[in-house]
Structures are given as structure tokens and as C-alpha cells.
TrEMBL record:
Classification via InterPro entries: Aminotrans_V_dom (IPR000192), PyrdxlP-dep_Trfase (IPR015424), PyrdxlP-dep_Trfase_major (IPR015421), PyrdxlP-dep_Trfase_small (IPR015422)
One Pfam family hit: Aminotran_5
Entry annotated with the keyword Iron-sulfur: no
Keyword Transferase set for record: yes
Domain Aminotransferase class V: from-to ranges: 27-406
Molecular function GO labels: transaminase activity
Keyword field: Aminotransferase, Pyridoxal phosphate, Transferase
Protein name: Aminotransferase class V-fold PLP-dependent enzyme
UniProt xrefs under Gene3D superfamilies: Aspartate Aminotransferase, domain 1, Type I PLP-dependent aspartate aminotransferase-like (Major domain)
SUPFAM superfamilies documented for this protein: PLP-dependent transferases
Amino acid sequence: MFDDALLSEIRSRFAHVDSCPFTGPRVFFENAGGALTLNSVVETSARFAAIPDNQGRSNAASKALDEIITKMRADTALFFNASGGAVMVGESGTELLFRLVQDACLGAKEGGVVIGSTVEHPASRSACARWADVSGRPHVLVAHDDATGQVTPDAYAAAVTDQTRVATILHTSPVTGMGMDVAGIAAAIRAKAPDAFIIVDGIQHACHGGIDVDAMGVDGYVISPYKVFSRHGYGVAWASDRLTALAHDSLVGGPSGKWELGTRDTGAYATFSDVVDYFDWLGTQVSDREDRRERIVAAGHAIHAHEAGLTDAMLNGTDNLPGLVDLPGVHILGGADNASREGLVCFWADGKPSGDIVDALNEEGVRTHIRKNDHYSGNILGPLQQDDCIRVSVAHYNSLGDVRAFLGAMQRILMG
């Protein structure tokens, strides 16, 4: 885990790290709903909001904006480890998933099926349901394992055939908290359907580090920057050269390979460069690597290790505080001992409504979230016959002190 000095430096780079602007001091364990924002992103957003010039004009300001956009595309390709393809900015991560799935379904070879899994967020599942139907294909869902909260390469391999035309994969679940073996799943798909278009929902995974689309062997990867230390109002995606070559919504006579429609906010591009710069900086603190991509990779490893320490303390206790597994009537979604967990614990307690626990934690100054058996989380909670659960989601700027505050509050809530 990060030492106190580095963690203090990390926390100093984020806005509202220990205090809500509306309610005062609090611990922020709602990172899966939207991570804290880098101070650099706040400053960049304000600076670009005041710039009156548009891109593509014959003046110095406009050319500077064009250069900023070009830099962001290069930064993002490095962050994704994409040696080819195109980087695009859209309305949101969900909107970009719909666009990539649409183009894949409409551009793939005729016939066959679209395949995904039951663990997926409704963004990718809904996109596939719609565009599989429009393109006249069945939408096949691979079942996830209720006990572990994930879907495996073997499960995909059993369902994929040479008739698979489009496939979607969830990198990390925002409900179970478990990461999937994306490279393994993609390899299982390619073994039987080498020409299938494979699109990954990386929205929940991105802030935990470790994106490598070249190694994954996929055709699309989508994230939501507000969940990886940037701000709301835009999404970011990468599409392979062959996915980009398909027909997609664009202006007649416009440049080939261009995904964006209309003029996007240059500040959005600039703020994602801020995110990549932050990962690069963190890599300098946890490694002696000279290569920028290697520093980003090192940052991801360090983030994963720190968050694993936090969730282990949350589950098994720290100092003299019992962990969730030792509190009466607590059930851990996906199991307490699960190596695939990424910075998130979902649980419920017998005889205590989840909404009451979330409210009580708020009163104690600990921000969490309820997940309900609805269109967002019913695919996970429904098979468990569970109406709701409490989601506690950490990020690498959280501390063991935050975990102690949470466990102390839970002990008072459940044990009086």
C-alpha cells in the first residue's frame, strides 16, 4: 500500500477528498458512482470554458485547440496501449457503447448472432439487444457465476460458435466488483469466430488501472472519464482500424475515419490529457521507469495493490475493528475471498434494510450507495433473490483511516 507521505501527496491532487461541499467532512466510498475529480481537471475546465475560438480556423488560438485535441488522442492511445485505430470523444460512455455496437452489428457479415453475458451493465446489454434486433440476429447471453460474480473464458467458449458476429465483454462489474479476464474471453471468441467484432465496456475498470487493448485483441474499448478522475459531460472510446473502416454516422463528404459528430468541447479532450498525466506522475512515484507507458502501467499496479489492501481491511478488519465478514448477518456479494475483486464490496445484512444502512452511514459521515433489484442491478441481484445491497467502492486516494471510519460506523449500526 502507499505510505503516508505518498498518500498525502495523492490526496492533495483531488478536489473534495475528505469533505463534501454541501454537508462537510465525510469519507467518500461512492467512487463507482463517479470518482473524485483531479484539481488539474477543475482548473483546465475553467480555463477552456472561457476560450471563444473554435477548432479548424486559420488563427493561432484555433490551431492551439487542434494541437490539444491531437495530443489527447495520442495520450489516450498510450493510456489504452493502442498501436492503431482511432480515439473518439462522445456524449457519454453509454452513448459510445451504443455507437460502437450499432456499427459492428450493421457492418458485420450477414447472419449469425450477437453474444454478451448476464453480468454486463445495461449499457452494453441494451445496445446489443437493440442492434441485434435491428440487424436481424439473436442476442445470446452467457450466464455468469452467481457465487463469484463473474463470467469466465470457459463460459464464453462453451457458447461461442463460428456464427458469432459481434461480442461484448464487461471488464469490471459495478455491482459485483469483480474483474473479468478480458484477454482470455477475447481469445476464446477468436478461437471460434476470428472475424467477430469484440467491444469492451471498461467504464467501471478504468480508474483501477491496467488497460491494454493490444494485448486484449479487441476492437473497441469504452470508458466514462467522470469515473476516472475527470468530469461529467463526455465519454472516451477507442475503435480498431477495422471497426473504424465500417460505415458509421458521419457528415457526407467529411474526412474518412472521423467518429465525432459536430464540434466537441476542447476542454473535454484537455481534461483527459490531465488524467493521463496524473497516471504518468504516479508512475514516477512508484517506479524508476523512464518510458511513459511503463510508468502508466506501474501506476496501475500500485493502484490495484493499494485498493486490494483497503478492501481486505474492509472485509477482514483492521486494528481492533472487526471486518464485514465478522459482523452479524452480513453477506458479501461474490464471496469475501475473491482475487478478482477491484476496489468494491457489495453486501447486505439480515434484518436490516440496505437503505437504512446507507442512511445511517451518511449520518456517520460515510458516503456509500444502495443497489436495487432494478434495470441497473437486477441481472445480479435477481438470481440471488435479493432486493438490494450496499455498495462500498474505494479508489486509490482512500486510506485505512477511511476504512476504520466505515467499520466503526458499521459496528455501531449492526451491533448497537
